[in-house]
């Protein structure tokens, strides 16, 4: 009998927590994540058409899915987190990425970063003049020119500098 009462008490406590979670999450930050997760494809298609988070948030707010005076930034952040979750670990994921430029919404391509292979190939056996010329070429390519107003200073990657 004691085991039966204990399991009933556990069930009652769990049910109470679940009911409280629904009450708290409808006005808390979890509702944004829930909306972003359940309506991800629809939000993505709206964003692709150029509709902003402000209009999307207002629409969800009037339908009762988001609390009154819903925070637009929270919905946007929840959508970006959901997008990251869905594209995590999947190569070449077809998840849209958007960037605001002025008043238009521009679609960016989700292209993975590929480092370009750069190497200096020597055509000769490597005489001292060729090596010095190669070092000077690398030094010039990796240098930075700074205009100080009184003249230009060329900073080299090896720590040295020249005045122009």
Structural commentary:
- The termini are far apart.
- Strand 1 and strand 2 form a beta hairpin.
- The chain is α+β, with helices and mostly antiparallel strands and 164 residues long.
- Helix 4 crosses helix 5.
- The strands form two sheets. Strands 3-4-5 form a three-stranded antiparallel beta sheet, with no helix packed on it.
- Helices cover 52% and strands 13% of the residues.
Q: Assign the structural class, choosing from mainly alpha, mainly beta, alpha/beta, alpha+beta, or little secondary structure.
A: alpha+beta
CA radius of gyration is 29 Å
Largest β-sheet summary: 3 strands, antiparallel
Walk across the major sheet and give the strand order.
3-4-5
- Termini separation comes to 93 Å
Number of helical segments with 4 or more residues: 6
Return the string of H and E elements.
HHHHHEEHEEE
Described by its quaternary structure, the protein is single chain
Residue runs with pLDDT of under 50 for 5 or more positions: none
Mass-distribution shape: elongated
| Number of beta strands | 5
Mean pLDDT: 75
Proportion of residues in extended strands: 5-15%
């Amino acid at each position: 009998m004691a085991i039966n009462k204990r399991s009933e008490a556990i069930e009652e406590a769990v049910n109470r927590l679940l009911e409280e979670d629904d009450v708290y999450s409808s006005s808390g930050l979890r509702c944004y994540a829930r909306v972003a997760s359940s309506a991800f494809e629809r939000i993505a298609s709206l964003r692709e058409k150029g509709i902003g988070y402000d209009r999307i948030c207002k629409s969800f707010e009037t339908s009762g899915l988001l609390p009154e005076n819903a925070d637009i930034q929270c919905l946007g952040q929840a959508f970006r987190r959901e997008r990251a979750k869905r594209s995590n670990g999947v190569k070449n994921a077809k998840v849209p990425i958007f960037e605001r430029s002025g008043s238009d919404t521009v679609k960016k391509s989700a292209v993975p970063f590929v480092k370009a292979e750069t190497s200096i190939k020597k055509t000769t056996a490597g005489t001292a003049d060729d090596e010095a010329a190669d070092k000077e070429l690398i030094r010039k390519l990796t240098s930075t020119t700074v205009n100080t107003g009184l003249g230009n200073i060329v900073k080299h990657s090896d720590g040295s500098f020249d005045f122009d």
